[in-house]
Amino acid sequence: MTIVLFFTLFLISLGLGGCGMKGSPVAPDSTIPAPVSDLQLWPKEGGIFLRWTVPAKNMDGSRLTDLLGFRVFRQALPLAPAPCQPCPATFEPVAEIDMDYPRGVRLERGIVLWQDKAVSPQNEYTYFVQAYNLYRSPGPESKRVKIFWDDPPAAPTKVNLHKEDRALKITWEPVPFLVNGQEMADFKGFNIYRRSQGELFSLSPLNADPIPDKEYWDGKVELGKPYFYEMRTVRNFRGTLIEGPSSAVVQGVPEKRLPPSIPTGLVAVRQQDGVALRWDKNPEPDIAGYNLYRREKEGKESVPMNPRLITENYFLDGSADLQRAYFYRLQAVDSSPSGNESDFSKEVEVAPESPALGSRK
Question: What pLDDT score was predicted for residue 82?
């Protein structure tokens, strides 16, 4: 009897101790991720982009260190013939984003960017996002954001780039149709995008609001640096600005187009070792130098005197024959890649040296 009781107590103790297998850990509610606070939507590239910032904290205020991913939920309601009133809030998961192995998303400095391409015209879409941790415990929903979707407008045509002084001007022709061929009745304007060599086009346009005109003047550029541009038509569909596909890409390099001002104050004086010339410095800060030209009194063409740019406002013409009369004139040259030249200064004449003066020692 004692032996039977002993084995009975032993088996009970094994049952209380467990078999050694562990169940899935459960995270307390206070350590679930905080909700996404800045969910944004906008239509582009034939779909709807979602953008949000990765939460940095848990619900209890502690630092979020075990974020595993996000789930994206969507509700779709047809607009035709008319949406139901009221509509049941039926949301379906449309994406799960694993932060360790993100696919189909862009991650940049704590920002998540995902595009929903499975959208259809004449629909109202509402989205929310939930973060979840290593226990796969979801945090609260983000705010729900609604957007309308329809066929995008067609791309602009005849895109051209024109070089202006220290700026680039882009022109184009609008196309008053949607990509499905229907006439566009809700035209809003155009968005213009720019990138540099080796970069991608930004997701945000240069312009703050759609441009109603057919040209854009870009003066915020660096001289000598290549830039690339594309345009997109925008329609206002029920308050949602829907952007169309890209136009052809044009490129250009901004330059300084206006020449420097005309040099002034040129004077020429004979001396024993030639003709000394002086002039006033040009006021522009980007003057690279000057070119000096000389012609004889009987000649028609001016001859350049300097093989390289003159960087000072002084030059000695040591090749001048003191018994001849000469005319001198000057051009300023800037430091732009095209080396713009000013118009010629006024000519100054230097008379031949008199025999009496030449005989002095």
Answer: 66
CATH of the domain at 325: 2.60.40.10
Q: Say if 132 falls within a structural domain.
A: yes
Q: Taking the model in full, what pTM does it have?
A: 0.71
48 plus 132 within the same structural domain: yes
Q: Which domain holds residue 199?
A: 157-252
Strand, coil or helix: 161: strand
Burial label for 79, CB within 10 Å (0-12, 13-18, 19+), is: middle
- Residue 248 shares a structural domain with residue 297: no
pLDDT of residue 339 exceeding 60: yes
CB atoms within 10 A of CB 240: 18
pLDDT in tens, 1-33: 444 444 444 444 444 444 443 444 545 566 899
